[in-house]
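Sat 14:20. Reprocessing the chain from the morning session after the first attempt stalled halfway. Input below, unchanged.
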Amino acid sequence: MSTETLTVQTNRFGEITVKEEDMILFPKGLLGFEEHRRFFLLTAPEYAPFAQMQSLDDPALTFVVLNPSIVFPHYKVEVDPREIAELEVTDVKKVLALGIVTVPDDVSRMSVNLQGPVLLNQHNNRAKQVVLVHSPYTTCHYIADELQRRQTRTDAQEKAPVTA
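Finished this time. Tokens:
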């Protein structure tokens, strides 16, 4: 049993060989990039907790992505099952939400789009970007600010006086 592979030349990572089973298919493309339907995730310890979502259709198109629950532990995606029917989801636990990250020159202002997550069915690698219309999330949540808030809460809990 052989696995089909595709070798692609990327602008950012050079030549990479991708197994067909690792390709992510967006049946309708990404919002604003509808013509780009084939991607793969490039993960490496030095990028953690981020990953690179590289287009197989355009060597120059790469998105930085992040599992939002790493930074925003209470992040929830509520979506109508009809909206993700094309992902052929049989087990919602196999669906991974990824937020697209914006990395400006000032990395302290790095943000993640929580309103438009990419939903990836890990069972078959079909994906779709959805827009969460009735949610408290926006397209710009600052990662450093959230980490600072969490650290401040942790510090306050550690310093809270105990009385009896």
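The radius of gyration is 18 Å.
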